[in-house]
Specification:
alpha/beta, Rossmann fold, eight-stranded mixed β-sheet, single chain
Length: about 350
């Protein structure tokens, strides 16, 4: 069994693990199930490049509130080592990612969970009521809205609107971006994990279109050119928290998570038969005022397609909202849970 880096292990509960869908799947857990199959855990799903560790503030708050909560290192991240090699890329598609969550529920012996997802984890949890409605008690999207199926291949759309260096388009080249980021782990996290600058948010996120030949969101090029001494943004991680990310990704590399992006086209092709609406499942959308990639405007269409939806805003937060503004996220999440699921002991 792999071990968490020492710094991370000091900040998190002892990880649990089980054989799930062919993986040695790992998760962190607080609280306990006292209701058998009727028990409903809150399962926190991280994004890229993150870990279960990204939910440390929420796990701590859930433990204090007596809520059964779980944060997995998902397929290809942290302690959950994923399949290797270019030929294994299809094993990171949405069927596998949602299937891992179903497998975790089966292992836990419960019927349903409340799924909370941020960034890529948000994409995954919004697919749960479409692909596995019987296993989904509720969905909470953090930053990431419910996204309708694109009319054509989303990679083609992003390439046309945002250019070849737009990070998701660039990620389609197996191994190229991975190798660059693997050699700049410290720099990558130093550039990412910072608060937004003061002032009004100006980004339209994925609705942005390039002007001229410049690509939008050329992540890898930005990492290569990054100079921390010139960055006026404040950090929000303690030195110990920063080291937990750096140690982990130095050990694992970025390929597992980037493989999720390499399934955009495959996921789009496989989703043609899925429903468009989410009905009968309580949903909460937590937006972040200053998220440059997933701004609040990206969630404006959601009431048309979800019949039980509340939307709230975290002011002043950039993209890493559960870490930048943990108290605000916890307050909004627990307020909603206490009203919609009062038997969770919130």
């Amino acid at each position: 069994m792999p071990k968490a880096p020492a710094v991370l292990a000091a900040l998190m509960p002892e990880p649990k693990h089980a054989r799930i869908n062919g993986l040695d799947y790992h998760w962190y857990e607080v609280g306990q199930n006292t209701k058998g199959r009727a028990g409903v855990p809150v399962i926190f799903c991280h994004g890229w490049p993150e870990l279960a560790f990204s939910w440390r503030h929420q796990l701590k708050a859930c433990e204090a509130a007596g809520v059964w909560a779980i944060a997995p290192d998902q397929r290809g991240y942290g302690l959950t080592e994923g399949p290797k090699g270019e030929g294994a890329v299809p094993e990171y598609d949405m069927a596998h990612l949602t299937g891992d969550l179903v497998g975790l529920l089966d292992h836990l012996g419960v019927d349903k969970a409340i799924f909370v997802g941020h960034d890529w984890g948000g994409i995954v949890v919004w697919q749960m009521p479409l692909m596995h409605p019987a296993r989904t008690a509720a969905v909470v999207g953090l930053n990431t809205p419910y996204m309708l199926r694109a009319p054509v291949d989303p990679i083609a759309i992003m390439r046309a609107r945002m250019g070849e260096e737009m990070y998701i388009v660039h990620f389609q080249k197996y191994g190229e971006a991975d190798a660059i980021l693997d050699g700049k782990v410290w720099t990558t996290f130093d550039m990412f994990m910072r608060r937004p600058l003061p002032g009004p948010a100006a980004s339209a996120g994925f609705a942005t279109a390039r002007t001229g030949d410049e690509s939008v969101f050329p992540l890898v090029r930005l990492v290569e050119a990054y100079d921390a001494s010139l960055d006026p943004r404040e950090t929000f991680l303690s030195p110990q928290e920063f080291e937990a990310f750096v140690e982990t990704f130095t050990a694992t590399g970025f390929t597992g998570g980037i493989n999720w992006y390499r399934n955009f086209t495959r996921n789009w092709e496989a989703s043609a038969h899925l429903p468009v609406r989410i009905d009968g499942i309580p949903c909460l959308m937590i937006t972040a005022e200053k998220d440059a990639v997933l701004p609040p405007s990206a969630a404006e269409h959601m009431p048309e397609f979800i019949d039980d939806l509340e939307t709230v805003l975290v002011k002043g937060s950039g993209h890493w909202t559960q870490q930048e503004k943990p108290d605000d996220v916890n307050r909004l999440l627990f307020d909603w849970l206490s009203r919609r699921f009062p038997d969770l002991s919130v």
